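Troubleshooting entry. The earlier prediction with NAP gave an output that would not parse, so I re-checked the input for stray whitespace and re-submitted. Clean input:
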Amino acid sequence: MRRVAFIGLGRMGHGMAGRYLDAGFAVSVWNRSKDKAEDLIARGARWATSPEDAAIDADAVVTMVADDAASRAVWLGANGAVTTAKPGTLAIECSTVSYGHVLELARELHGRGLVYIDCPVTGLPDAAASGKLTLLVGADPADLERARPFLEPIGSSIRYFGAVGSGTVYKLINNLMGAIQIAGLAEGLAIAEQAGLDMNLVLESIQNGVAASPQVLRHSKRMVARDFADATFTAALRHKDAAYAVALAESLLADKPVMGRAAVEAYARAKQAAPDDDEGKMIELVSRPK
Ligand code: NAP
């Protein structure tokens, strides 16, 4: 039986860990807050007392945590997974982390004999729970082949970008473009509301016009209805992704990433107002009348 250690049971990780149970893997789980693991334990997962405990005897360690600091802690911290993971173990990092962190972590884990797979994802929590994520992979081709049986339960599509780090480069540009679009949409809708336009007609025009991406289509309905009951992606995470992307842009481009910086600034405000609220609540920040 294949053995997976799954670390990080937030909105995304909880559903992903459940997919390994559904697929018949032996699964050990760890999360900073144990309550999120209870139903997975009831379904047969082993509760590990630390990432280090989770990684004992694992064929693959899969992580899905918030950011660079969390990733560093669960892999390399005092009770990190690297302490017990055996040489040859697959180290599959699915969190959205910075490019610099991916390179540093890969170097560190390679040095200890682990096989590093850069594997950020796209898709919302419902896609995570149903195994329909798109996996954005950066890895040595032979390592990807070894990792495939551990990727199939969580992803319906694997996009292979090349060397370690390249999956993260794509993930960061994807989410930076999303941040720019969502922040821009909020401003556009706020202007239309304050100018007194019929918002049903505005929505219909957006849905049938050419300016909207799938991201904009989804958020326009939620923003106009102020329907943010279930936060799927938080302001804090969107800010983090945009900031990591801008840092990458600044290392590669001669000119300042003007749009990216504006999106980081917009999401810094949203994060300050309510870090755990849905990213779409940006509309509430920008729609206050003059
Ligand atoms: P989330 O619900 O906020 O969960 C964050 C996870 O990270 C939780 O398990 C949390 O533990 C853990 N964590 C945070 N800080 C930690 C630390 N210092 N040490 C150890 N664990 C820590 O976030 P999410 O939406 O699942 O997102 C997880 C990752 O997937 C992020 O990198 C995000 O950018 C990416 N992502 C999210 C989506 C989405 O639609 N939500 C889509 C694609 C990619 P606790 O439970 O104890 O707080």
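This one parsed fine. The CA atoms of residues 65 and 71 lie 6 Å apart.
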